[in-house]
Amino acid sequence: MIKEMNGKFDFIAGIGDRWDDNELHSEIGCLSVILKEYEGQWEAAADRIDKYHRKWKMEANRIHLKGKIEGLARLCPLLLSKYGGALWEAYLGSVLEMAENSRETRRAEDLESFSHFGLDPTDLRDAAKWDGLMREEDWENNSVYGLQKFELVEATRLKYIHKVTYCLYADLWKEHGRADIGYQIHCRTDSAWWDRPAWNCEVRFEQPKTLMQGDDFCLFIQSIPTKD
Asked: Which end of the chain is more exposed for a tag (fewer CB within 10 A), N or C?
């Protein structure tokens, strides 16, 4: 049964009421939670499981990204030697096309989400709140969870600015000495999703700084142009 469950779930938590249950949990390879430790405060046990799950997710994301970038760092220089700069133009074009083809579906989903949280997609103060909520709300399915650190710079009705102060993508590409490739794959294509986003096509996007290009942080700027 344990083997079957391991194939279906991220991890298994064993909950026991005696300290010697730790031994059993160790044998079957699961997180051990002993209720005696919490003296009836079961919500603390649930919090421990949640923290463990989040830590597990961050490590899984890190391992997956490291393997992905190792492969790309070997492949992309070979493709560049054959196709030159046309490779990146074709790649950007394919990402823009994918974003456009999914726009209507994403628009419906995003507007429903804004409505669910009682937020207004025409007010970038609410867009900033929504962005943060989405990062936290869907962390279990977020392949970037735990790999970046964000900092809010400004949020007004017409402007939303935030920084990415840490990015494992940038660190890994720099380790391979090919942050230039990382920029083309991960940063240049941000405009496909952030410029004229599905939830408000009036919003424009700028990205004047990126860690991949040697800056101290990535700077994301969304704004709604005034009509006067």
From this structure: C
